[in-house]
Amino acid sequence: MNLELNGKKAIITGATRGIGRRIANLLAEEGVDLAICARDEEEVAEAAAELSKTGVKAVGKAVNVRDGDAYKAWLSEAADALGGCDIFVPNVSAGGGMDSEKNWIKNFEIDVMGTVRGCETLMPHLEQSDSASVVLISSTNALEFFAGPMAYNAMKAALINYAKQLAIFVGNKGIRVNSVCPGPVYFDGGAWEMIKGTNPKFYDKTVRAIPRGEMGTPEEIANVVAFLASPKSSVITGSNIVADAGYTKRVQY
Ligand SMILES: NC(=O)c1ccc[n+]([C@@H]2O[C@H](COP(=O)([O-])OP(=O)(O)OC[C@H]3O[C@@H](n4cnc5c(N)ncnc54)[C@H](OP(=O)(O)O)[C@@H]3O)[C@@H](O)[C@H]2O)c1
After folding, report:
1. Ligand 1 centroid vs 172 CA: distance in angstroms?
2. For the whole model, what pTM was predicted?
3. Which residues of the chain have pLDDT under 70?
């Protein structure tokens, strides 16, 4: 299937490693110009240079999504550098953790406000696109009990609601908004590699809960995001796509 992504312009946050990086890699392979950010300046420069090798324009900047002013300034700068924005993937998360008030505020500022500020700042650019798509990255932790009452789980749930509300609100401008809930995703250097080392019992229990006996890969999540970002998913908006290899056990209607 030709995803018709060639020539589109995408902004992805947190794209030096993990899922965000694989989304950037795949979109670059599909001919999408990219602007990426993360906090580590050297890693951002390396990632942008690697992505450029595919022949697309790839620009990057070290930005902490938590710093609202710097983040919004970078988003505008990124859209100007690309000459517009068709695709926005706010991928950065503050991650899990049990659980202080500090964590709740951090997860709110990074996961929720990082997404809301991004959508609001880029809205004028998305309005100019003939195939605008916003893909929010939530988690199956938003859908079922996972580990405990973490800020991460609650803030990821907020994103699913926000995606739906925004999709209806801006649908008449031709902008689609969806969310993706990855289940556990394993990659070297990722959270699950760390958990495998520090809490092997929990890791094994999690793997056993996945019918195929293997966690998802960042590439598999990138495939889903690329489809949602592409004009080929034009009929899908306001939806939450669970991409968890059967990890969650609820029936989804
Ligand atoms: N991995 C999983 O099993 C899983 C499952 C469900 C959902 N998810 C979601 O998928 C998304 C990506 O997860 P991941 O596991 O790929 O994450 P990751 O490996 O921790 O990668 C995070 C990326 O974001 C950047 N980053 C982190 N904090 C940042 C900040 N405050 N400002 C700017 N950049 C920041 C990191 O670079 P720097 O450190 O240099 O900033 C890196 O590029 C997250 O929203 C996560 O909640 C992951």
Report:
1. 31
2. 0.98
3. none
